[in-house]
Amino acid sequence: MSAVVLIGAQWGDEGKGKITDYMAEKADLVVRYQGGNNAGHTVVVGDEEYKLHLIPSGILYPNTLCVIGNSVVVDIEILFKEIDELIRRGVDVSNLRISDRAHVIMPYHRKLDELQEEGKGANKIGTTKRGIGPAYVDKSSRIGIRMIDLLDREVFERKLEANLQEKNLLFTKVYGVEGFRTEDIVAQFEPYIERIKPFITDTSIVVNDSVDRGDNVLFEGAQGTLLDLDHGTYPFVTSSHPIAGGACIGAGIGPTKIGKVYGVVKAYTTRVGAGPFPTELFDAIGERIRKEGHEFGTTTGRPRRCGWFDAVIVRYSVRMSGLTGIALTKLDVLDKLEEIKICHGYDYRGRILKDFPASLKALEECKPIYEVMDGWKEDTTQARTFEELPVNAQKYVRRIEELTGVKAVIVAVGPKRDQTIVREELF
Ligand code: GDP
Ligand code: IMO
Ligand code: MG
Predict the structure, then answer these.
(1) Which of 134, 154, 165, 294 is 20 to 30 A from 371 in CA distance terms?
(2) Ligand 3 centroid to residue 297 C-alpha, Å
(3) Active site annotation includes 109
(4) Distance, CA 11 to ligand 3 centroid (Å)?
(5) How far is ligand 1, taken at its centre, from the CA of residue 40, in Å?
């Protein structure tokens, strides 16, 4: 089968953009299936860097069709900013399709995200403040506005009006701020509605037809397993389902149609936003990894928290998504280190945990159990086969494979397209 799901197997920012772009060369279709512009996927082509937030990372290949699936929440202003920027840089976006069932992020969602975060004080999640959570809340409350609604002015205005009646009470009475006016939002959306029409379609048909034809189809996850609403470090999560199961719901395709599932895994661990992180480093090594790896958020520019590789997390991802392989990225970032640690279990009050706990209180108390490996202290960025990697780097990758039980089908040694070692047929 040729349908492959690619997910983030840690806390996001694993390099999904780079791997998606790499695989997109041979893909007929790339589908984003959840999240919104909280994502920031970086693709580097030669000296050009593209930061994609909503548009699938397959867009740079003119023959690859790109779909924004039904479970993605779409901020149409941001969408057109991204489209216009791509057009300005000479990228053809006529191969983009957007689900008629995708929900729209409204200005009041962004405002609510901000106010709710502020209100949480010390307990804030550290969201991207893009309105993601509030948009998914409205979807679950069955009051959300979908792409299809935008195409019918009467429906759009009616739904907006009903939403604002309730939302404005919240803004004025609870938060003590000004509310929104229907006519202002309609006017704000006006210029986009005609432009968005040609992109909107029933994308589930597009995706299923493509899979049924035997095309190479790639599902590009956003965020990562530990940010999954059900399986992540709740409540420090996003409001969608980045795990592989999310691809079926988020694209409108049955699980029997999926072939392989790859987890993108950084050779160490990072996290943006709040919440427990057992292998986090607070010392000079953490600082060094942040500097060498340019670990600053693609979307918000926040410094990413950095720590050692955590096999407990990746094993958890293997179980949650049935990973058939991993794409190990940023191995080169560790090139200069004397020694490298791998966490293979947690010490929780003297007991050894091999599985990721549900309780955040317990997770906060977990102390990582490390094994120490010798660094390779050589440049890996020029390696193009596994054998060209320094012996200690090969050992590090093999040890990760042993501890997680899955093969590293891709090893990335730099942000560029050609800095990619491929160890098996990917589709
Ligand atoms: P995503 O959200 O999973 O797509 O990841 P981001 O784009 O937010 O962050 C990953 C960053 O690492 C980007 O700046 C990539 O260009 C970069 N990157 C990806 N793979 C590699 C790699 O193997 N080595 C290095 N040095 N950088 C990489
Ligand atoms: P990509 O696709 C890393 C984090 C936020 C915050 C939490 C909730 O680039 O890997 P939200 O705005 O979604 O309500 O924020 O989730 N977060 C990400 N962290 N990479 C991402 O996306 C993220 N998208 C959201 O920092 O902790
Ligand atoms: Mg990112």
Answers:
(1) 294
(2) 7
(3) no
(4) 10
(5) 10
Per residue, the 3-state secondary structure of the chain, as one string, reads CCEEEEEECCCCCCCHHHHHHHHHCCCCEEEECCECCCCCEEEEECCEEEEECCCCCCCCCCCCEEEECCCEEECHHHHHHHHHHHHHCCCCCCCEEEECCCEECCHHHHHHHHHHHHHHHHHCCCCCCCCHHHHHHHHHCCCCCEHHHHCCHHHHHHHHHHHHHHHHHHHHHHCCCCCCCHHHHHHHHHHHHHHHHHHEECHHHHHHHHHHCCCCEEEECCCCHHHCCCCCCCCCCCCCCCCCHHHHHHHCCCHHHCCEEEEEEECCEEECCCCCCCCECCCHHHHHHHHHCCCECCCCCCECEEECEEHHHHHHHHHHHCCCEEEEECHHHHCCCCEEEEEEEEEECCEEECCCCCCHHHHHHCEEEEEEEECCCCCCCCCCCHHHCCHHHHHHHHHHHHHHCCCEEEEECCCECCCEEECCCCC
* Domain-wise residue ranges, the chain: 3-93+202-422, 103-199
Q: What's the CATH fold of domain 3-93+202-422?
A: Adenylosuccinate Synthetase; Chain A, domain 3 (3.90.170)
| Residue 16 Cβ contacting ligand 1 at under 6 Å | yes
- Convert the pLDDT of each residue in 34-49 to its tens digit: 999 999 999 999 999 9
* pTM higher than the cut 0.90: yes
The pLDDT tens digits for 98-143 are 999 999 999 999 999 999 999 999 889 999 999 999 999 999 999 9
pLDDT class for 297, splitting at 50, 70, 90? confident
Specify the CATH number of the domain 103-199: 1.10.300.10
